[in-house]
Design a protein that fits this description.
EC number: 2.7.13.3
Radius of gyration: 56 Å
Shape: rod-shaped
Subcellular location: Membrane
Largest sheet: 5 strands, mixed
Transmembrane segments: 165-187
Order of helices and strands: HHEHEEEHHHEHEEHEEHHEE
Organism: Polyangium sorediatum
Oligomer: single chain
Catalytic activity: ATP + protein L-histidine = ADP + protein N-phospho-L-histidine
Number of helices: 10
Number of strands: 11
C-alpha cells in the first residue's frame, strides 16, 4: 500500500498548496479593497472638511474653524481628525504626525497618504491622509490630517488566515481519505496481487493466474503477466523435451564411443585370450589320452578352470565397459579406476609395443563420480596416447592432488582437485590443432584409427562432473592431458 499512501500524500499536498495560494490571493485582494475604501473615505471627507475650514477661516476666523474640526473629530470614532500647520516646530501641538520632509507636496496643494507604524502613544499602524487647506487668496492654511488605525485590518487578516487554515485542513483531510480509499482499491490491492504473482513465478510456480477486472494499465500488466506465465510454461516444457533429447543423444554418442573403443581393443583382447585358450586346448587333449593318472587329471582340470576364469574375467571386463547404463555417482577412489582401466588397455598397448606406467601413491584420492563414465573418459585419453606413439614408447598415468584454478569459462576460486595425468611420447600437436581437439568428429588420425568422438566425450563427462581438462602439447614433444575432478570432502577427525 506504499504507492497508495504516496498518491494520497501527493494529492493532499497539491490540494493544500492550491487552496493556500487561493486564500493568499483572496486575502491580499480584500486588504487592497479595505485600504482603497479607507483612502476613498478619507479623501472625500478631507476635501469637504478642508473646503469648510477654508471658508470659515475667511468668514469667522481660525477659532471657529478649529472648533468645527474638533467637533468632526468627536463624531468620528474610528478616525482621528486634526487641523495641522506645516510650518510649526515638530513638538508643537499643531505639528503633523508625519515628518516635515514627507509633506512638501502638501504645501504645494497635493494630497498625501502615508502609512505610519505608530501615532503619538498608540503603537499601531495607521493610514494617515493629509488634505491641504487652501485659503481663498491661494495661500496655504495647513492641512486636514485624517488618521485611521489599521488594527482592524490586521485582525481581519488573522481571522481570514485562521479560517483559511481550517478550510484547507478540512479539504486536505477529505481529499486524503478519498485518495487513500481509491488508491487502496484501484492501486494498492491490484499491486499486492501483482507482487504475489511475481513471487510465485520467481519460485517456479507458473500455474497461478491473475483475475483483475480493471481496464487500465494495471489490468493490462496483469494480462501480460498471465501471457508471460503461459509462454514460460511452454518454454519450460520445450526446454525439458530438448534436454531429454540432448541427454538421450549424448548417451547414444557415449555408447557409440564405447563400442568404437571396444572395436579398437578387439585385436589386443583376441591376443590376450589366445594364450589361455591354447592352454585349455592342450590340457583337454591330455585328459583324453589313455593312461593318465588321477593326479594328472585333477591337475589338468584345475588348470583348465583357472584359464577359463581368466577368460571370463577378460570378457566380463570388456562387456562391463561396453554396456550402456545411466550415471550413478558414488564415492570413488580414482587410483582403483585408473588401475582397472590400464589393465583393460594393456593388450592394446602390448600390441603397439607401448609400455604403460602407473604412479598413484599410497593415500586414497577420492571423488564423487560415476565409475563407468570416468573409466570411459580415461580410456579415451589412454587410447589416444597409445595411438599417438606409432613407433611405440612409454605412456605414464599419474593420480595425485593439485591446487589449481578453474579456466575462465568455468570460473571460481582456486581449490585442491584430484588430478589424473596422462603423458605420452607421441608426435604431439601444434597449437591450431590443440584448439579443436575437444570438438566432436575432429580428428587428425588416419582413416580407421578414430571417429573424432573420444576426446569430445571425455570432455563432456569431466564437465558434467564439475571438472575440467587441460592439455599441454607441442609438435614432436608428445602430449600431456590432465583431468581435474573435485575432491570428496574428508571427514573431520573424530567423526565416523
Amino acid at each position: 500500500m506504499i504507492l497508495a499512501r504516496k498518491l494520497a500524500i501527493a494529492l493532499i499536498l497539491g490540494v493544500f498548496a492550491v487552496v493556500a495560494v487561493h486564500a493568499y490571493t483572496r486575502v491580499r485582494r480584500l486588504i487592497t479593497l479595505f485600504e482603497t475604501d479607507i483612502r476613498h473615505d478619507s479623501h472625500v471627507y478631507g476635501r469637504v472638511l478642508a473646503a469648510a475650514v477654508a471658508e470659515m477661516v475667511h468668514a469667522d476666523g481660525r477659532e471657529r474653524a478649529r472648533a468645527v474640526v474638533q467637533l468632526a473629530n468627536q463624531r468620528e470614532n474610528h478616525v482621528r481628525i486634526r487641523w495641522v500647520s506645516l510650518d510649526v516646530p515638530a513638538d508643537s501641538a499643531d505639528a503633523p504626525a508625519a515628518p516635515r520632509a514627507e509633506l512638501d507636496s502638501v504645501a504645494r496643494g497635493e494630497e498625501v497618504v502615508l502609512r505610519l507604524p505608530h501615532l503619538d502613544d498608540v503603537h499601531e499602524e495607521h493610514l494617515v491622509t493629509f488634505v491641504p487647506v487652501v485659503a481663498e487668496g491661494g495661500g496655504s492654511l495647513g492641512a486636514i490630517e485624517l488618521a485611521e488605525s489599521l488594527a482592524g485590518e490586521k485582525q481581519y487578516v488573522r481571522t481570514a488566515l485562521f479560517n483559511t487554515f481550517l478550510a484547507n485542513l478540512a479539504v486536505a483531510l477529505v481529499c486524503g481519505l478519498i485518495a487513500t480509499g481509491l488508491g487502496v482499491w484501484f492501486v494498492g490491492r491490484p499491486m499486492q496481487s501483482l507482487i504475489a504473482q511475481a513471487r510465485r513465478v520467481g519460485a517456479g510456480d507458473l500455474s497461478a493466474r491473475l483475475a483483475l477486472s480493471q481496464r487500465d494499465e494495471i489490468g493490462q500488466l496483469a494480462h501480460e503477466m498471465n501471457l508471460m506465465c503461459d509462454r514460460l510454461a511452454e518454454a519450460n516444457a520445450r526446454a525439458a523435451r530438448e534436454t531429454d533429447a540432448r541427454i538421450s543423444a549424448l548417451e547414444q554418442l557415449r555408447h557409440a564411443d564405447r563400442l568404437a573403443t571396444v572395436g579398437k581393443l578387439g585385436a589386443g583382447i583376441a591376443h590376450e585370450l589366445g594364450a589361455p585358450l591354447q592352454v585349455i586346448s592342450g590340457r583337454a587333449r591330455m585328459l583324453c589320452e589313455d593312461g593318465t593318472s588321477p593326479e594328472e587329471v585333477e591337475r589338468n582340470a584345475r588348470t583348465i578352470a583357472e584359464q577359463a576364469d581368466r577368460i571370463i574375467r577378460i570378457v566380463r571386463q570388456l562387456l562391463d565397459f561396453a554396456r550402456r547404463r545411466g550415471a550413478e555417482k558414488s564415492r570413488l577412489d580414482l587410483r582403483a579406476i585408473t588401475r582397472r582401466t590400464v589393465s583393460l588397455l594393456k593388450p592394446l598397448a602390448d600390441k603397439r609395443t607401448v609400455s604403460i606406467e602407473i604412479e598413484t601413491g599410497e593415500a586414497p584420492i577420492e571423488a564423487d563420480a560415476d565409475a563407468e563414465q570416468i573409466q570411459q573418459a580415461l580410456t579415451n585419453l589412454v587410447v589416444n596416447g597409445i595411438q599417438a606413439m606409432k613407433a611405440g614408447g612409454r605412456l605414464c598415468v599419474k593420480v595425485y592432488e593439485e591446487h589449481a584454478a578453474p579456466p575462465g569459462d568455468i570460473g571460481g576460486d582456486e581449490a585442491t582437485y584430484a588430478c589424473i595425468e596422462v603423458v605420452d611420447e607421441g608426435e604431439g600437436m601444434p597449437p591450431d590443432v590443440v584448439a579443436h581437439i575437444f570438438e566432436p568428429f575432429f580428428t587428425t588420425k588416419d582413416v580407421g584409427e578414430g571417429t573424432g568422438l573420444g576426446l569430445s566425450v571425455s570432455y563432456g563427462i569431466v564437465r558434467e562432473h564439475e571438472g575440467f581438462i587441460r592439455v599441454d602439447s607441442e609438435a614432436g614433444q608428445g602430449s600431456r592431458f590432465r583431468v581435474y575432478l573435485p575432491l570428496c570432502r574428508r571427514a573431520s577427525p573424530g567423526v565416523s
